[in-house]
Amino acid sequence: MASGGLGHDVTNPIEAEGLVRRFGDLTAVAGVDLVVEQGEIFGFLGPNGAGKSTLVRMLTTLLRPTAGRALVAGYDVVTEAGAVRRSIGVALQDAAIDPLMTGGELVRLQAVLHGIGRTEADRRGAVLLERVGLSGAADRRVGTYSGGMRRRLDLALSLVHEPTVLFLDEPTTGLDPTSRLALWDEVRRLNHEGTTVFLTTQYLEEADELAGRIAIIDGGRIVREGQPAVLKAAVGAHTLVVTVAPEAEAQARAVLEALGDDRAAASGSVAIGLAGGPAALSGALRALGDAGVAVELDAPSLDVVFAEATGRRLEGSGGAEATPEVAP
């Protein structure tokens, strides 16, 4: 956090200090301090119900904090909400897009809502639709668009007013691999052009691929923060994942308890941190030989960091379903 508290002289696009949000007796966000630096892609991860969406809604002025303070693009999210909205682009996963309008019409309408003149609106609309690969579909009704096309249109809409900070809420959820890679390329290009990106995602590979820094929220608090490579190195031990039949799970767990610390694993598997790494694998294999189970040795990943920080696997990474997050 910048010294001297929050103020208009800050240079960081996003700063939060002691941010709290309560819904009745439930505290969804419990005193978050956060800094996102100029020109970075910041990945924000958390299981459902951890406070991730609530924090994003506060930063984008859609939800008023119960306590604490946050500045986005140098403006207070409560007292200067209008200035914040003019400075940011927001592509929410549940954004409502009129299916009866064409892509071109929606981009031009978005420009008008931001006070951009018709000539400039037409120019920007054409440029943005070309950037996201929708020029050929500009005159088609959005109701005919695929999921990937809708996500790319939503990105174009969020960029009409040339924001300095872009919030992307799980931008590739539900997309096929090709569409996901295309959207990743566009996010990188925007970032290289100077746009600061705040990325929430349920895909750990996405955060690892795009983000220079990440934060993991759990129970309304930031439980890990830093560069992905540093966080992965801090976990240390490789993870031994043992795939077991239901009737063999108890036996496999009993054998593995003596070999390393328990780690969160997907359903049907048992996992430990194998301190000796590959060198210790032969001993583990001998111990498991009579169990008749398959084993894998994985290097530390963001999935492991997430599981070590929260005790759970992130939705979308093969773990069990989490509790739905409370929404206003």
- Using only CA atoms, what is the Rg? 22 Å
Order of helix and strand elements from N to C terminus: EEEHEEHEHHHEHEHEEHEHEEHEH
CATH topology of the largest domain: Rossmann fold
> What assembly state would you assign to the polypeptide chains in this entry?
single chain
Global outline: globular
Describe this structure in words.
By secondary structure, the chain is an alpha/beta fold. Helices cover 33% and strands 24% of the residues. Helix 3 crosses helix 4. The strands form three sheets. It has a six-stranded mixed β-sheet with strand order 6-7-8-3-9-10, with helices on both faces. It has a four-stranded antiparallel β-sheet with strand order 2-1-4-5, with helices on one face.
Fill in the keyword field for this structure.
disordered C terminus; alpha/beta; 11 helices; 6-stranded mixed sheet; Rossmann fold; 328 residues; Alpha-Beta Plaits; 2 domains
Task: Annotate the secondary structure layout.
Blueprint (H helix, E strand, L loop, with lengths): L13 E10 L2 E11 L4 E5 L6 H8 L7 E6 L2 E2 L4 H7 E4 L11 H11 L4 H14 L15 H12 L6 E5 L7 H16 L3 E5 L3 H7 L2 E6 L2 E6 L1 H8 L2 E6 L5 H8 L4 E3 L5 E6 L6 H8 L5 E5 L3 H9 L18
Parallel strand pairs: 3-8, 3-9, 6-7, 7-8
Antiparallel strand pairs: 1-2, 1-4, 4-5, 9-10, 11-13, 11-14, 12-13
Helix pairs in contact: 3-4, 8-11
